[in-house]
Design a protein that fits this description.
This protein is an alpha/beta fold. Helix content is 26%, strand content 22%. The chain has one domain: Dihydrofolate Reductase, subunit A (3-Layer(aba) Sandwich). Strand 3 (99-103), helix 5 and strand 4 form a beta-alpha-beta unit. The longest helix is centred in the N-terminal third of the chain and has 17 residues, at 4-20. The two termini are 21 Å apart.
């Protein structure tokens, strides 16, 4: 009986969080062993490497087809944008209908990267705690919204996106570290994974959920149970799995 008040408060807090913030779906391409990269350096990338591998490349297009049906707001990081080459000078930028929410503190994005993203997406929401971020050079751009905070609190950020900008749903496609932070904070509602028929390996290669390892019983609350909503067999031995997160 002594545990019930705490359980009730946790449940009540979870309900409040869901009403004030965006609904968030983690959407990733993963190998069977959970890897979302092909190596432990920024030069390795599934988008670049998997099309080279026979037995994997044949079904890869299904992931990109499913990606077209995700939410019109996509959350990612400056590091991922830099990794896929967004900082390079580009003249062939095609405007898309998707808006990006980019978390970038270091910064990983350069002025070139900012320019490319502003030209590419419908609206760019740049979240940073860095007063010297290149984003501030583009404050006059109509489709750029800078969300500055000296400390990044993700519940606050997601709540502001809903309250101030009317964003109700977004898709998360970031790296394993940020995925872990959001998951363990109870801020991921669904997980949509396209599983490629591949085993990549490498203990330092990023997975769907990285972050700090668990050490003791008191850490077990960080393990999130999932409820399967859909399991679909795709072509060429690919799978699409959709889970509800039991926050």
């Amino acid at each position: 009986m002594s545990h019930r008040p705490n359980q009730f408060r946790a449940y009540h807090t979870s309900i409040i969080m869901k009403t004030v913030r965006t609904f968030n779906t983690l959407f990733m391409l993963s190998s069977l062993d959970g890897k979302i990269s092909t190596g432990d350096t920024d030069s390795r990338d599934v988008d670049k490497d998997l099309p080279k591998i026979k037995g994997i490349k044949e079904g890869l297009s299904q992931y990109y087809e499913l990606e077209k049906w995700t939410d019109l707001h996509s959350l990612n990081t400056g590091r991922v944008m830099a990794k896929i080459g967004m900082n390079k000078k580009k003249n062939d930028i095609t405007k898309i209908l998707v808006s990006f929410i980019i978390i970038d503190n270091k910064p990983h994005l350069t002025a070139n990267g900012m320019r490319n993203l502003i030209r590419k997406c419908k609206t760019l929401y740049l979240v940073t705690n860095n007063k010297n971020h290149p984003a501030f050079k583009f404050e006059n751009k109509e489709n750029l919204k800078i969300i500055y905070s000296s400390t990044i609190n993700f519940l606050t950020i997601l709540s502001r996106l809903k309250k101030e900008f009317g964003i109700k749903r977004l898709t998360i496609q970031s790296g394993g570290t940020l995925n872990a932070t959001l998951l363990r904070s109870g801020l991921i509602d669904e997980v949509s994974i396209v599983v490629a028929p591949a085993l990549i390996g490498g203990k330092d290669t990023s997975t769907i959920i990285d972050g700090k390892s668990l050490h003791s019983d008191k850490d077990l609350h960080n393990i999130k149970a999932l409820r399967l909503k859909k399991a679909e067999i795709l072509r060429n031995s690919y799978l699409h799995l959709l889970y509800k997160v039991q926050n």
